[in-house]
Amino acid sequence: MTDSSLFITEGRPLLQKTASTYLERSDEERIRYIKGSRWVSYDAAQKILIRLEDLLQYPKSHRMPNLLIVGETNSGKTLLAKYFCKRHPSQNDPASEAANIPVMYIQAPISPDEGRFYNAILDLLFAPYKPSDRADRKQAQVIKLLRVVGLKMLIIDEIQHILAGAMAKQRIFLNLIKYLGNELQIPIVGIGVREAFRAIQTDPQLSNRFRVVTLSPWKFGEPFKDLLRTFESTLPLHHPSYLEEETLANKILALTDGYIGEISGLLTSAAEHAIKTGRERIDKKVLDQIDWIPPAERRTEPVDI
Ligand SMILES: Nc1ncnc2c1ncn2[C@@H]1O[C@H](COP(=O)(O)OP(=O)(O)O)[C@@H](O)[C@H]1O
Ligand SMILES: [Mg+2]
Predict the structure, then answer these.
(1) Distance of CA 49 from the midpoint of ligand 1 (Å)
(2) Mean pLDDT of the chain
(3) How far apart are CA 118 and CA 139, in angstroms?
(4) Is residue 210 classed as helix, strand or coil in its secondary structure?
(5) Which residue's CA is minimally distant from atom 25 of ligand 1?
(6) Of 3.40.50.300, 3.30.420.40, 2.30.30.60, 3.60.15.10, which CATH number belongs to 43-214?
(7) pLDDT surpasses 60 at 8
(8) How far apart are CA 78 and CA 106, in angstroms?
(9) 45 C-alpha to center of ligand 2: Å?
(10) What is the pLDDT of residue 96?
(11) What distance in Å separates the CA atoms of residue 98 and residue 167, rounded to the nearest whole number?
(12) Distance of CA 249 to the CA centre of its chain
C-alpha cells in the first residue's frame, strides 16, 4: 500500500494510511501531525498539475507556450507550485560540475526592479555577483547559468509585483519575460492575483502565449464535498466527522469564505480541539467552540491587546 492509498476501518470513512498509523499515537503527536503541512489533492489542482507536466515536456521552440495561474490570496497557488517542484527536484550530475535544475521557482521581488529580479535567480543558483552590477550584465549571467543547469521551466510567483506600477515599468518586465522565454526556449509559469492577468493582457504578443487557469474559492457542490472527504482522511481522529454532510459543509464554507487556506486552518484548529476535548470528531459543536473569526470579519474586527 502506498502512502497516499486509503484504507477502511469499520464504520468510519476512509483514512489515509499515514493518518491511520497516527491513530495509535499520543494526543501530542497527533496534534503535531495535524499541524504539519500536508498536500490535499483536489480535481482543479490535478488538472493544473497535468498542464504543468505537459508544459515541462513541451519540445523546445521559438514560441514556447506559457501559463498563468490566477487566484486570490489563500487559494492554494503557491502550495500547488511547490508540490509540482518537489516532483521535479534538482539533481547533481556527477559527470558535470553543474547541478541539473529542471524547474526553478522564484518569488518576484516586491518592487518591479530588474536587478533584484535577477538577484533572486542568482541567489538560488548560489552564483557570485555584485549587487551593484548593471541589470544587463546580470541578465547575461542568468541566461548563461540557466542554460548550464538545463532549466526547463521557470515559475515566477507573486508575478503581479513586477507587473505593477507605471506602464513603462510594466513594459520592461513584460519584455523581460518574453526575452527569457525566447532565449532559453522554456515555458514561463506566472502565478499571481488578477492584476497580473490584466497586465499581461496589455501585451498582445504575450497574452497570446499565456494560457490562464484560475483557482477560485470553493462553493457548495460535489467537488467541495470531495475536498472535505479528502481533508478528513488526513486527520487522525478516532471518530468519523462526515465533514461533507450538508449542514457541516455549509458551515465550513461560511466560516472560511471557501478559501482553501482558511479551510485548512479551520480544520486544523477544529481537529486539535477535538483531540484536546476528547470529542475525537469535528462537528458543529467543535466549530462553535473554537475561537474562529471568519476572514471577512477578521479584516474589520478591532483587535484587543
Ligand atoms: N492542496 C492543499 N492541501 C492542503 N492544504 C493546502 C492546499 N493548498 C493550500 N493549502 C493551505 O492553504 C494555505 C495557503 O495556500 P497558498 O498556496 O499559500 O495560497 P496562495 O499562494 O494562493 O496565497 C497553505 O499554507 C496551506 O495551509
Ligand atoms: Mg502564494
Answers:
(1) 15
(2) 92
(3) 7
(4) strand
(5) 261
(6) 3.40.50.300
(7) no
(8) 11
(9) 14
(10) 75
(11) 38
(12) 23
**Ligand positioned closest to the Cα atom of 264:** 1
Q: Return the SS3 of 242.
A: coil
**What 8-state DSSP symbol labels residue 160?**
G
Tens-digit pLDDT profile for residues 59-96: 999 889 999 999 999 999 999 999 999 999 999 877 77
How do residues 44-59 score in pLDDT, each as one tens digit?
A: 999 999 999 999 999 9
Q: What is the DSSP string of 37-96?
A: ------HHHHHHHHHHHHHHHPPP-SS--EEEEE--TTSSHHHHHHHHHHHS--EE-TTS
The answer, yes or no, to whether residue 1 has pLDDT greater than 50, is: no
Burial class from Cβ neighbours inside 10 Å (0-12, 13-18, 19+) for residue 6 reads: middle
Cell triple for residue 67?
501559463
pLDDT band at 305 (very low <50, low <70, confident <90, very high): low
Query: Global pTM?
Result: 0.92
Residue ranges per structural domain of the chain: 6-36+218-296, 43-214
